[in-house]
User: What shape does this take?
Amino acid sequence: MSSKKNSRITLQNIADALGISRGTVDRAIHSRGRISEKTRREILDKASAMGYIDDKITRFTTLKKKIQILALFPESPSFFYDMMKTGLFSALKEQNDSLLELKIIDYNPENSDGFLDILKSSVQEDDLKGVLLVPSGHFDPSITLPGSAKIPYLTINTDLPGTKRSCFIGQDLYQSGRLGGELIHKFCSEGKLLVLSGYKGLWAHDQRVQGAVDVLQDISTGQNKTVVYCDDDIGMAAELVKDAFASDRDLRAVLSLTAAATLGAVHAIESMGSDNRIPLVGFDFNEELSKALDDGFCDALIGQNPELQGAYAFKLMYSILMNNHKLKNDCFVTPTEIYFKELKPEQFSRSDFFI
Assistant: This one.
């Protein structure tokens, strides 16, 4: 059968041959919606036998090769990245594709050489087709990503804009920093302010710091700001807040720009007692931070829903690899949310904007 004749085979032809609906065939070939693995395999085999030409079938299915997606996560703060992993696994389960293999490796953000060693070793594997990367720690933001000329890299949560990554998925970090600055100013518009971030030099953390500093300069003329970094370590963050308060009794508020920085600030404020309680605006959310809102040790939290970030990243990578999706943008901005004692994440209605 010539390629010209093959190209005339339609989804309806395949559906008629199997005695099923065209919609079922479409879902199987283009991985849309739910379909059993047995039915999907029967449809793909029939489509191949009839000579149906489709990038997904040609490149992967008829070859019956495993498609491995590597996801690299920092080791800490684990509670935050575990939520992102939950999103990945949820999206993987939704695809119900036996060809897919999701490989997750946690790395030490303090060891940039080890991070690169993992990448260099992984890209040598024949099955590896894409990398989901969550950058963190101290390393050159313009590093060369191994294999990026042939393997798509999607950065999640923080970006590496100086590299050949394919796309970034995450919050508008600069704007979220501005939002944090505006919020803390509403709680405390006078006196000294401590701005606590994670890693100096990490794009996401620098963007938030810049956003907070810029908006505070715009709206406040009499508020002194001190920016310090905790290397995303909860214990270090707590000590930095305690030391700042002990050395300067004019300290009036804390803006914590990462999950670890916020937890550390909460621990410090709790330890200082209710008589010394100062306003705190932080980032991200878990049960401990929810309790801090309830108990008055934190006034507001800015959320970014890491679970959705993980799910969106996986879906986009799947579409690139399996449906030959061509990226029209180099970033997907995920929603920003604000949480208070009476407004928690479970009260938000979230739609999947990834189509």
Notes: The first helix runs from residue 3 to 6.
